[in-house]
Amino acid sequence: MATLIGFLFVGLGSKRSSRFNGWALISAAIAMIAASVAEIIPSALAIDLGWQDSLLWLALGGFSVYAIKFLVNQVENRRPSLTGSVLVVTLALTLHNIPEGTASIAATGANLEAGIATGAAIAFQNIPEGLSIAALAMAASQSRLRVFLLVAVSVVAEILGAAIIWINQAYLNSTISSHLLLAVAGMMLAISFLELLPQGRKLLVSAKR
After folding, report:
1. Entry pTM
2. Domain extent at residue 44
3. Which residue has the higher pLDDT, 61 or 28?
């Protein structure tokens, strides 16, 4: 639900400038990178699975975002645009919210302290997630209703993920917990570096013209 707070920053009130949206995207990216590096990845690495296995799942999460970006660019005839970035970020965050919804429950299953820390980190970085979707969509001249629906889809995905793992928690173990956390972190890092930072920079450059 914290994702909706991010929507409120840009989705309500008067239309935001390109400069505002640009800084919003960069701020969201920085927050997501910080949450991944400072909280989510350490929580996963606390379950000692070896660096090769950890790196593999981190890379798989990042590659999934790259694959989504590639497919969207193919549909758009290889012409990257703000609208394309909206689709990439929304799809990627929606997909990543399914395992993210399971992450805090999964971490709790391994260690209560890790579960609390992971839950707090996820709640914190959900705000810039909602902010990133809303800022991109507003910059692409989407209606407020459509912006809200895009953010809402991401929220529903996270609730769905939490419900799935809650129902099937008997099958949960420390290995699955670590894999989920690392995949989520990989997706967040890829979204930040492939979409949010480049689009934020473009918006700031265009605002200076």
Report:
1. 0.75
2. 2-8+16-206
3. 61
